[in-house]
Amino acid sequence: MADILVYALAHEGQVNKNSKGAISEAARLAGELGGEAHAVLVGTDLTDELAQQAGAVGATKVFTINAPEGIAATAIDGIAALVEAKGYDWVLFGGGLLGFEIGAGLAARIGGGVTVEVTDIKVDGGKLVAERPIFGDTLLSHSNYKSKGVIVARTNAFEVKETGGTASVEAFDAPIGAAAGQVTLKVRGEARGADVNIEDASILVTGGRGLGTAENFSVADSLAAAFGGNSAVAATRAVVDAGWFPYAGQVGQTGKTVAPKLYVGLGVSGAIQHKVGMQSSENVLAINKDENAPIFEFADFGVIGDLHKIAPALTEAIKAKKG
Amino acid sequence: MKILVLVKEVPDAAVEKTIDPATGQIDRSGEKALNPYDTHALEAAVQIKENGADVSEIVAVTVGPDSASRTLQGAVSRGADRSIHLSDAGLAGSDVVATGYALAELIKRESPELVLLGQQSDDGGSYAVGSVVGEFLGQPALSQVVKLDLAGDVITAERQAEYGYDTVEVKLPAIISVGDAINEPRYPSLKAIMGAKKKPVEKLTLADAGIDAGKVGTAGSGVDCSDFQKPASKSGGTIITDEDTAATVEQIVAWLDERKLV
Ligand SMILES: Cc1cc2nc3c(=O)[nH]c(=O)nc-3n(C[C@H](O)[C@H](O)[C@H](O)COP(=O)(O)OP(=O)(O)OC[C@H]3O[C@@H](n4cnc5c(N)ncnc54)[C@H](O)[C@@H]3O)c2cc1C
Ligand SMILES: Nc1ncnc2c1ncn2[C@@H]1O[C@H](COP(=O)(O)O)[C@@H](O)[C@H]1O
Fold it and tell me: Are B156 and A186 an interchain contact pair (Cβ–Cβ within 8 Å)?
């Protein structure tokens, strides 16, 4: 079947930006295959307005499945039933966390293959071929599917294209299985810590696990203060998970996407899930003591050394220069 | 309660990962190590036991080549009571779904209440194995869990998802992949390292485990990822090593100055 199904993640009345990007990409690909892009929403308060957000970026049809949001097992049941009922060969996801969980489970359920972290998709011989960078983005791998395929995009891989279109909306009833019944979502999307703003900063000093302790964030704070002006401090998931920094200040796949004039990484390894949130930065400066750290693959200026020696000295030098 | 921990052998972090030009396949030679993320899953299992849960057994399970036996022993030294090693030429070319299928078949033989695994494989992880295993077992799977509390047969798990932290309650049996912030894995003691050699290892082939060879390996995989290409090379940055911090800082400031960033 030439139609492509896209999982549209939605939260608080908004379809996720990465889901929208996946819908736009699916519309382009379906056009080449001679089909259409359809979207599926899973949740308990799915409005027509929400469905039309998917319509406005390229979906011609939107299915709504009335089941609790935020639980992979539930979504797998619903989407698998839809795939079977309508005969889709291809299902796209915009990434995130649920995208990986649902996508992988779905591939197993429908007897297909799955590729994650996909940055490019081509049509070849009537099939989709997914491209995924591997080994710290030093190599590209291509997924050739035997029959059905699930493709989970990397965060920010696909651009949202507003078409201004509208979709027909159809409720789909799906039986939810036993595994889903074992799961209860108690809290969704708790923003731990202060509501810091990192998206508008032109200079962003990011602290990673290499800082060593929560208190050592003062090293990042001082450096950001020395730069002055429109600077801010951000963090990696590792340190947010550890409770050293607010979630609102996290860069990456499950955090914010930033594009400052200058990104400074202090003790940040440069994992892909972090890189996807900051790779549009104009200039990247990295200080890391491990010469094999992946961040050196994409830093414009990299310093191999101890941040506790270098960052305070840099702070002083910038202050002195500014006079 | 029986806990299974899934562990994988990966290339050592210091090994440069490349493609063997002769075969066009990933070059699998070089030093191997236990997937660092899996040490957090082993530590989590041990902590559940130490915290007073009635844990009858912790079993480390791997699917991988014969050479993975040393890595598996390393995993056992971190607190497992025994281990299971599935190794068979027929597994070559398995995709994520096929690997998950094989693991699920091994798990079925053991019927544990809880399966723990790492957040990702260090060698091009997909963070997907747990979800696939859960699907084949008909059990719920949760990934990236950084806090885990067990009360009776219910686990309260916290993890960061797309909009912040989610708290989820899961009734066992379940599959849980733990994030690397969940704990600080301890290094095994010398005694534990020596003791691991004496712990039982069950080495199985596909036939031994009763796994359908048509559902694993190249034949059982829905996707083939063997077509590799080098990306368009982008000009590399300037990388310096800090030997004299005053000189290093001078160079950084000059670089910033050139770009009008200070
Ligand atoms: C599904 C999923 C989603 C994720 N989402 C995100 C996300 O949104 N954002 C994110 O950031 N991560 C995310 N991650 C996690 C990511 O994979 C990495 O684990 C994380 O980014 C690592 O953070 P880090 O660089 O602070 O820590 P580490 O990887 O531990 O790196 C610390 C670095 O500090 C260096 N260092 C240590 N001491 C010093 C010193 N004294 N001087 C200089 N350098 C030092 C070390 O050499 C090391 O390179 C996600 C992972 C998964 C699986
Ligand atoms: N071949 C394997 N054998 C045992 N466990 C595995 C294997 N592959 C992956 N895993 C487990 O699944 C986790 C996630 O891996 P992945 O989905 O490949 O990123 C790893 O941290 C391991 O705990």
Answer: yes
Nearest to A234 by CA among A260, A271, A272, A212: A260
Q: Would you say the CB of residue B255 lies under 6 angstroms from ligand 2?
A: no
Which of B128, B171, B241 is closest, CB to CB, to A116? B128
Torsion sign across C-alpha atoms A187, A193, A195, A196: negative
Size of interface A-B (CB pairs under 8 A): 272
pTM assigned to the model = 0.96
- Interface pTM (ipTM) of the complex? 0.95
- Looking at the DSSP assignment, which residues form a beta bridge with residue B171? B154
Residues in Cβ contact with B69 at an 8 Å cutoff, skipping those fewer than 6 apart: B85, B201, B203
Strand ranges (DSSP E) for chain B?
2-6, 9-11, 32-34, 57-63, 82-86, 114-117, 141-151, 154-161, 164-171, 174-178, 201-204, 223-229, 238-241
| Minimal CA separation from B136 to chain A, in Å | 7
Q: Ligand 2 pocket test: which of B28, B42, B72, B121 has the largest number of ligand atoms within 8 Å of its C-beta?
A: B121
CB-nearest to B163 from A11, A298, A314 is A11
Cα gap A299→B38, rounded to integer Å: 29
CB–CB of A158/B248 below 8 Å?
Answer: no
Here the tokens at position B104 are 């699920």
Q: What angle do CA B149, B155, A190 make, to 5 degrees?
A: 75
Task: Please report residues of B whose CB lies closer than 8 A to that of A227.
Answer: 261-262
The finding on whether A208 has its CB within 6 A of some atom of ligand 1 is yes
Q: Do B135 and A237 lie within an 8 Å CB cutoff?
A: no
pLDDT of chain B along its 262 residues, tens only?
999 999 999 988 777 777 776 666 677 778 899 999 999 999 999 999 999 999 999 999 999 999 999 999 999 999 999 999 999 999 999 999 999 999 999 999 999 999 999 999 988 778 999 999 999 999 999 999 999 999 999 999 999 999 999 999 999 999 999 999 999 999 999 999 999 999 999 999 999 999 999 999 999 999 998 788 888 877 789 999 999 999 999 999 999 999 999 9
| 3-class SS of residue A271 | coil
CA distances from A153 to A211, B7, B206 (A): 31, 26, 33
| Spatial contact of B170 and B154, defined as CB atoms under 8 Å apart | yes
- Provide, for chain B, the percentages of residues in helix, strand and coil under a 3-state DSSP scheme, each rounded to the nearest 5: 30, 30, 40
Nearest-Cα residue of chain B relative to residue A203: B261
SS3 label, residue A20: helix
